[in-house]
Amino acid sequence: MTDGSTSTVKKPTPKGLLGEELVSSKLITHEQLKQALIRRSQVDMPLGSLLIKMGFVSTDDMLDFLSKKFGVPNVNIFKKDIPQEIISLIPLEKIKQYKILPINKKNNTLILGMVSPQDFMTISDLEFTMGIKIKPVVVPFFMMEAALNLLSSSFEDGIRGETVKNIALEDKSETHTSPKIEALLSYMVKTGASDMLLTVGVPPSVKLSNEIKRLATVSLTPADCELYARELLANDDNGWERFLKTNDLDIATTYPNLGRFRINFYRQRGSISITIRRLFDTLPTMKELRLPDWIKDYALKPQGLILVSGPAGHGKSTTLSTMVDIINTTRRCNIITLEDPVEYLHKHKKSNINQREIGKDTESFEKGMSAIFRQSPDVIVIGELRDRESFEIALRAARTGSLVISTMNAANSTAVIRIIVNMFPESQQNLISMLLADSLLLSLSQRLVPNKDKTGQVLALERFTNSNRISNLIREGKLHQIRGQMETGCEEFTPIDLSLAELYKKRLIDFEDGLTYSVNQQLYQDITGVNVK
Q1: Do 250 and 321 fall within a single domain?
Q2: What is the 3-state secondary structure (H, E, C) of 108-123?
Q3: Which of 205, 443, 491, 495 has the fewest CB atoms nearer than 10 Å to its CB?
């Protein structure tokens, strides 16, 4: 050791990534590095600190490694107290700028801790301006960062090594208690947010008008998200076991005085993420949703297929439930739903309503659909058509006497046709096209667009209805012609661009938001009379 704090080393080794170099030096294994990198992606700590805290490498081994790497002595700041008069030898702004730290001064030589001790330009600059000889020693980045953080607050009494150690090895994501789940749900309800997002590495977040807003609290750790998951699944029979088996799970649950929520659990980068959507016991009215009255005409058809498409989070389930309520209020019939999970709890009105939850009441959409004809359905409601078998049964049911209503993820109201047909092998596509041509009643596509004052959202709707002309195009497989022909103007089609333009003209949305959600931007600009160069 030199000057009571440094060790003498030989020729420097080539520079590289810290983790890989530690593996090459056999100080850690590839598996240990992998674990540390995963943990680093989840918490706010430098890699060197993590490796030490996780017990994969000792502080002394890390210092010796860096000494060999740079060919200079090292200094362990954890074991060294530096008086204020030494630190004050260099202006604080230069200390932060160069990531350096005065360690000691003997005669006309300053022992200078550096993250990059081969930065000869910094050394020369300091020697010239201070008129003193600089002797560099290596300080690990995580130690230097902790020391600089300490200097940012106060160093009137200098720096104590033990304090630097506590800061360096402190996992900032675990130093405070994360909010309780009930508090988060309460905040979600109070703000009117549509969703709550719980993800490792960032604070809890809510979605307001389809934009994420992070809460002013600590970032979540893997332990936080696992605790939230266990708490949310506490009243769900075998919920935790089912999630561990599949790594994906949807449930709906009710919290007294807060309401009902749909919750999705999934894994990402080795940790648990949770998306919570607020559900409402009472459906909004059609006027509140801005749904047109003509939807009632289709919802009360005795048979056929109605599809509601759009991205996740744009109100498809609410539109679906509104149509179910129209039927329930008006018709005397038997309604069977397949939902994952059950979101709106419908009461029996004029109709009988049987709401079946995937994973609880039936194994899957496919299993539920395969048994549907034995349940005497007049109306079949499918939360989301996902698999080929369910599509085929739905099409047959819609053609042979039932009204089938479902949602799909699709870019627009005409794209659903292409998606359905292409889901099947070529040998079956003619049959599916025929079934679709005969059964399709209505395809809706919708978007929730931020309102003008950004306090909520407004529904924009695209309508595509079947007709003899459309049926012939579907049967003949001329799917590419459908939207192109209809956009030139026809009664079967109202493009979403027209709906957006009307919302803009009524001063309900900003022009730019309408442009963002339009399918044909030129058509939207032509209708609004606003052109973007």
Answers
A1: no
A2: CEEEEEECCCCCHHHH
A3: 491
Provide the b/e sequence for 40-67 (b: ≥16 CB within 10 Å): bebbebbbbbbbbbeebbebebbbbbbb
**pLDDT tens, residue by residue, 393-415:** 999 999 989 999 999 988 888 88
Helix, strand, coil in percent for the chain, rounding step 5: 40, 20, 35
| pTM score of the predicted model | 0.61
CATH, residue 363: 3.40.50.300
- Indicate whether 115 and 193 sit together in one domain: no
Q: Which residue in 175, 143, 135, 188 sits closest to 162, CA to CA?
A: 143
How many other C-beta atoms are found inside a 10 Å radius of the C-beta of residue 336? 22
Query: Residue 252: in which H helix or E strand, if any?
Result: strand 248-255
Of the candidates 354, 305, 309, 311, the residue with the CA atom closest to the CA atom of residue 333? 354
Query: Which DSSP helix (H) or strand (E) runs through 276?
Result: strand 271-279
**pLDDT given for residue 489 in this prediction:** 62
Question: Does the pLDDT of residue 171 top 60, yes or no?
Answer: no
Question: Distance between CA atoms of 342 and 65, rounded to whole angstroms?
Answer: 58
Express each pLDDT in 471-506 by its tens digit. Answer: 998 888 877 777 776 666 678 888 999 999 999 999
> Where is pLDDT greater, at 97 or 8?
97
Tell me the C-alpha distance between 485 and 389, whole Å: 31
State which residues form the domain around 46.
Answer: 18-172
- 1 part of a folded domain: no
| 230: exposed, middle or buried (Cβ count in 10 Å: 0-12, 13-18, 19+) | middle
